[in-house]
Write the structure tokens for this entry.
Amino acid sequence: MKVATGLAKGIVATPDLAAEAVRIALDRAGLAIAESILLFLSPDFASAPQPAISAASRAGQCLQVAGCASVGLFTEEEWLLDVPAAAAMVFGDGLGLRAARPEDDWRLAMAAPNAVNTSWLVQPGRRYGAISGDATGQGPYSVWANGRLANGRRCELVFEGSRIEVDVSRGVQPLTEPHEVEQLAGHDVRRIGGQTALDSLARSLPLDANDSRQFPLHLVMAGVTHGDPDNALAEGRYHLLPILATHPTERSVTVSHRLKIGDRLFWAIRQPLAAERDMRLMLDRRLFDSPRAPVFGLCFACMGRGPQFYGGVDRDLDAITRRYPGLPLIGFYGNGEFAPLDGGNRLLQYATVLALHYPDVQPQPR
């Protein structure tokens, strides 16, 4: 099994960057040609990526080139934002990518911002991956597979020759226990757990509930548990909803999605230290569950969880490369992440999804 990454950056976005990234990866993998290529491009390529895709295909003498354009990308070497760049991972020696079939289970899923809907996510098969694009959810962001732009602006791929394990770091710090939602008005939560929603939120933060300017709405989230409420937080069985507004007169809080009476809601905050700790715990789980070394990894991180969140250093990437030194790793910063949680495929926010691939041979019992 041969796999390696290559990273190329320049002053101008040209197809040569994609070809250079592939050539670097081939050299590192000891391959003359690639069976498959994952190619991620910076947003400079988003409006017209086909020349770069074709250049990567020629460099690797390979028709299966898949990937997307995104706001930022990375390999195990470094992360890149705000610079024309291409990241490639090449596969050979029996390891490769193909289009997903109806009977396939684990699927690498990539989608443009306007190509995601609930009916797709609930179809059979476990999906992991991310949405390309920026925070606005607009723009010409593209997805490709089989060396050309994907119909419907999304693709699902399956790895042959490896065994996969996927885990998620949610990266938030719960501020309260989940409480039952008692009163609603549209998207406004009015009462939870025997008190007004705003008072409940204010008591979890050292702030004046009557001054909405003090609330760090970009950092505070509403969490809604699903499944058995017992241990839902510890097991990661919850959705995170952005808080859109607070209303001192009505003592209510507006969240991004409609809830139902009886839902269990808690307040949480995004903090770099909490996210860094959660990533370490996730990596500890992986090491405990799979003590064997992976052969390569894919990582999909929210753009709100990257270097800007951590003060100029991607601490998630650092944690992975320290835990698995020398592991070929590729990924991008996206606008929503996919992972299977609690029996279903979930669209996550502010998460980091890590997919580790192992040799497709089960260890023999001693």
Q: What stands out?
A: The CA atoms of residues 210 and 248 lie 5 Å apart.
